Amino acid sequence: MGRKKLDRRICAPPVMSGFRPFGMPLLQTEPVVLYLEEYEALRLADYESLSQMEAAARMGVSRPTFTRVYDSALKSVAKAFAEGRAILIEGGSITCNDNWYKCDVCHQIFATENLTTFCHHCKSTEIRLISRAGGASEDGANACCICLKCGKKIPHTVGVPCHRQICDECGTPMIRENSYHHNLYKEKKLQSMKIALPSDDGTTICAHFGRTLGFIIFDVTGNTVTGQTYVPNTITGHAQGLHSENDHEHAHHEHSHGGILDALTEVTVVVAGGMGRRLFDDFSQAGKQVFVTSLSDAREAVEAYLAGKLDSNPGGCCNHHH
Fold first, then answer.
1. DSSP assignment string, 83-127
2. Are residues 186 and 154 both part of a single domain?
3. Which of 179, 240, 308, 318 is geometrically suited to a Cys-Cys bond with 28, CB 3.0 to 4.6 A?
């Protein structure tokens, strides 16, 4: 029989639940889980700059154990970066001096010396005790699996992933209530956004963003398209047919990417058949999701995005000089 795994001491909860990458569909992507002891190892070694001996003493473990935890943390972060995945900080074998709670409204993790019934950030009563003072993590205790299609809930069985539970009402795989994917689903259901696609005819996607005759703007609430408008291109200054090839470089000098960003300031997502690399980067730095797709039908591309299945090929950006 192997030795019992000791809980790792954590000084304070992380200030966030994780990180999300820009420009990636999240509902169809599994996050990388960074355990709380792995987060603590990174914090002590790389943020507080402690030696591994000092960090191990803080966590109440041996130096070799700390090294294994630290190495595992680095691999998890590298996997998230390399594969464009979100990082979710939760779980693990930990103990702490305070009671840790997670709020299901503002998603903050906070610590209290005494037990509480409300979030200390937003005052919501929708909180979960994830680690009791002096004890191990309780994340998963009293949790439920929920069906997104019909809303039915069943008690979560520890050790059995919720997606293996099939709803007996509608036959849909379930997910953990208030989990990463459930919270993403709830956010997306309430979210209103605008999606812009370049188009010459109001139906198909133009092959080059800057040369389009106009833009289709889709209004979306949750996963439903609620409106569609077509706006003529008066932004770039070199819409298709207005300049010859000899004028192309000059036209690029005339228009401003700042003008494009200003005109599409309310747009959350940009989908195109192609665009210049600089414009792609400018959109991304402005916090917009950008997709360079091989699809030609605008409505089909929007539906694919809402389903989390839109293909994207940033390598399709051209590198013309401005």
1. HT--EEE--SSEEESSEEEEETTT--EEEESS--SS-TTT--S-E
2. yes
3. 308
DSSP-derived pairing of the beta strands 269-272 and 192-199? parallel
Q: Which neighbouring-strand residues pair with 196?
A: 217, 270
**Whether residue 12 is found in the same domain as residue 132:** yes
Is 75 among the domain residues?
yes
pTM above 0.85, yes or no: no
Provide the pLDDT for residue 1: 46
Q: In what order do the strands lie in the sheet with 18-19?
A: 18-19, 87-89, 32-34
311 and 256 inside one domain: yes
pLDDT band at 58 (very low <50, low <70, confident <90, very high): very high
* Closest of 41, 183, 77 to residue 126, by C-alpha: 183
Specify whether 120 is located in the same domain as 47: yes
Maximum Cα interatomic distance, the chain, rounded to a whole number of Å: 78
Residue 86 placed within a domain: yes
pLDDT at 246: 46
pLDDT higher at 70 or 85: 70
Q: How many domains does the chain have?
A: 3
Let me know whether 171 and 222 are in one domain. no
Band (211; pLDDT cuts 50, 70, 90):
confident
Residue predicted with more confidence, 89 or 59: 59
What range does the domain containing 60 cover?
8-139
pLDDT of residue 132: 75
β strands within the chain, DSSP E: 8-10, 18-19, 32-34, 87-89, 94-96, 99-103, 109-112, 127-131, 144-146, 153-155, 175-176, 192-199, 214-221, 224-232, 269-272, 289-292
